[in-house]
Amino acid sequence: GSLLLGMSLIAAGANAQTIGFSQIGSESGWRTSETESIKAEAKKRGIDLKFSDAQQKQENQIKAVRTFIAQGVDGILLAPVVETGWDQVLKEAKDAKIPVVLVDRGIKGDESLYLTKVSSDFVEEGRLAASWLAARTNGKCRVVELQGTVGSSAAIDRKKGFEDVVKLFPRMEIARSQSGDFTRSGGKEVMESFLKAEGGGKNICAMYAHNDDMALGAIQAIKEAGLKPGKDITVVSIDAVPDIFKAMADGDANATIELNPHLGGPSFDAIAAAKAGKEVPKWIKAQGPLYLPDTAAEEYKKRSAK
Ligand code: GYE
Question: Are 192 and 202 in contact (CB under 8 A)?
Fold first, then answer.
């Protein structure tokens, strides 16, 4: 009776973990859904999640990780805003024997400083975007590029992958490339400057944005310049947030590559596996497909209904 109940409650309590999550901020719709998903997963598992929003600043992320270490958490999730500058604080976590899981972005540095990375392959995403564009334009296209946050692995690798393929096509070129910092306003501002610099944009064949939020801002700028996004200028981006499906259904965008925001499950599983002394791979990859306008209306309904 009550003894058994008491025992099971104690057992549950013993499993109750405290995990620290150092999140970058809420610069895009995708990141907001990632945060919601990870919080929901923690709740479902009875994990006490300590959440910190760094407002895009690395020093705030480093402070948060130090706080989690001081609190003696069982594990840390870190979405590293930029690739460098983590060695010291990750060494402190390692010395405290607290496993760190990198979510959705990676770092440059000693791999032994973190348990695993749960993310997609950004180079592959860039290659896929450029391959699709090359096929659509028969390998002839003058492209403008909206880069993500300067120094982030997502921006660096999505740019590299795209360039890997563009250089295979002598009549494709990246005419201009600048960071819009993964935000809608950033995408709009940079696209406005590109359109001005390109004489109104008539000779821009396509715009490649490292995420949908910048593409959605750029679409606004293209319309305000009197051009038709999705027709005069082809639009390809990454994330597959609900609003890009709406844009595709409206004919304003042409392709998006899905990025999985549900990274809590694999992250928490990796920490549990490490605690149980099991081997954990250094990279737990989540790769998404490319979506086109033909399924956009139903995808939008499905995704915005949730
Ligand atoms: O594409 C973007 C967010 O790090 C892969 O960051 C992530 C990127 C994502 O701002 O929407």
Answer: no
